[in-house]
Amino acid sequence: MTAQVLASAAIPQSLLNQPDARITRQQYVTLYRTVAASLDDEMLGLWSRPIRGGTLKYLMLSLLDAPTVLVAFNRFVRFWNLLLDDYRLHISTKNDLVRLALVERMPGTQVTPLGHELMMKLAHGIASWLLGRELALQRVEFSFARPRYVEDYAFLFPGAVQFDSGMTSIHFSYQDCAEPFKREKHELWAFLNAAPGAWTFSVFHHGSIVAKTREHLERNIAQPLTIQALAQALHTSVRTLNRRFAEEGTHFQQVKDGLRRDIAVDRLTNSNTSVAVLAFDLGFSDATGFCRAFKHWTGSSPTDYRKDTRRDG
Predict the structure, then answer these.
(1) Does the bond joining 196 to the residue before it have cis omega, within 30 degrees of 0?
(2) Where is the HTH araC/xylS-type domain (predicted)?
(3) Distance (Å, rounded) from C-alpha 160 to C-alpha 140?
(4) Closest by alpha carbon to 141, among 88, 102, 174, 199?
(5) What pLDDT, in 10s, does the model give residues 49-100?
(6) For 199, how many CA atoms within 13 A lie in the half-sphere containing its CB?
(7) What is the domain partition of the chain in residue ranges?
(8) What tens digit of pLDDT does each residue of 202-237 get?
(9) Which one of 41, 60, 149, 152 is most buried, by most CB atoms within 10 A?
(10) According to the 3-state scheme, what is the secondary structure of the chain?
(11) Taking the alpha carbons of 173, 178, 182, 187 in that order, is the dihedral positive or negative?
């Protein structure tokens, strides 16, 4: 079953043994949909009770006529509390912040990091879609330890992220949550058809320095990628950039490497571009340097990664 599910998304089975392996967004979406359909569980078996197919649709229909995001969040909380046995969602307002938190129903409940990540991302992604813009994150806290893939959080949760907290929670500005919105049913169908990508990956421009950096670097990927050049392009100082990167839990080299890794994985999977050409396109001076970097990023050489993808996919 595992081999069939991975093959449906053109993901090499060998990647399961590589902790630093990465897949493309489309592979993630296909894998998520395949697992959800096979389990009849839209949350992939991560909670004590299956979240049956159609749950997201009826959740979204219950939110569509809410007058503000805050009202939508209250409905979101009540909806999920009808479904979850191991946790309950709790919403509160304090010091001009709105907090959504996952609270254990029974002490000692097992923490499933991916389940917590998906629930927080679902709340953020839905609210951003309702507003038609990225809902700024004030803070995200997770009750589990800092994971080894922590650099990815800067893109999925652009803002301050803390680990080993008392409970998992996500925080927004009360002013943002008080904003009204208007969405139509025909827009909802498009959102649902694009799930889970539509709520996992934001399609809106926001103030995240990680997002701005990735956008700039992607447009200039073959050029020398220095923080000095980025500061000049964004009309700011290197010191300010470093401070903003630190606020989002990352640094320039990490963002740069993450983008080059994602582009490399996508092109190795979906094109016949040679390793030498790909190295040049990504701004490396030679293929050897690219191969060394790719193995560091993913645990596999570019050639082996491509072979595994073609064989297993």
Answers:
(1) yes
(2) 211-308
(3) 6
(4) 102
(5) 999 999 999 999 999 999 999 999 999 999 999 999 999 999 999 999 999 9
(6) 22
(7) 40-200, 209-247+251-312
(8) 666 556 788 789 889 988 888 878 999 999 999 999
(9) 60
(10) CHHHHHHHCCCCHHHHHCCCCCCCHHHHHHHHHHHHHHHCCCCCCCCCCCCCCCHHHHHHHHHCCCCEHHHHHHHHHHHHHCCCCCEEEEEEEECCEEEEEEEECCCCCCCCHHHHHHHHHHHHHHHHHHHCCCCCEEEEECCCCCCCCHHHHHHHCCCCEECCCCCEEEEEEHHHHCCECCCCHHHHHHHHHCCCHHHHCCCCCCCCHHHHHHHHHHHCCCCCCCHHHHHHHCCCCHHHHHHHHHHCCCCHHHHHHHHHHHHHHHHHHHCCCCHHHHHHHCCCCCHHHHHHHHHHHHCCCHHHHHHHHHHHC
(11) positive
- Residue 161's contacts (CB-CB under 8 Å, 6 or more residues apart) are 139, 140, 141, 142, 150, 153, 154, 249
- Using a 10 angstrom Cβ sphere, with 0-12 exposed, 13-18 middle and 19 or more buried, the burial of residue 167 is middle
Start-to-end CA span in the chain (Å)? 14
Residue of 73, 66, 125, 119 whose CA lies nearest to 99: 73
Q: Any idea which residue has 């996500």 for tokens?
A: 170
Note the CATH number of domain 209-247+251-312. 1.10.10.60
How much is the pTM? 0.80
Q: Provide CB contacts within 8 A for 211, sequence distance 6+.
A: 155, 158, 202, 205
**Which amino acid is it at 306?**
R
Tokens of 65: 């006529």
C-alpha 81/C-alpha 89 separation (Å) is 6
Radius of gyration of the chain (CA): 20
Please state, in angstroms and rounded to a whole number, the distance separating the CA atoms of residues 232 and 241: 11
Q: Closest Cα partner for 76 from 233, 227, 199? A: 199
Residues 157 and 137: beta-carbon distance below 8 Å: yes
Residue 310 CA to residue 313 CA, distance in Å, equals: 5
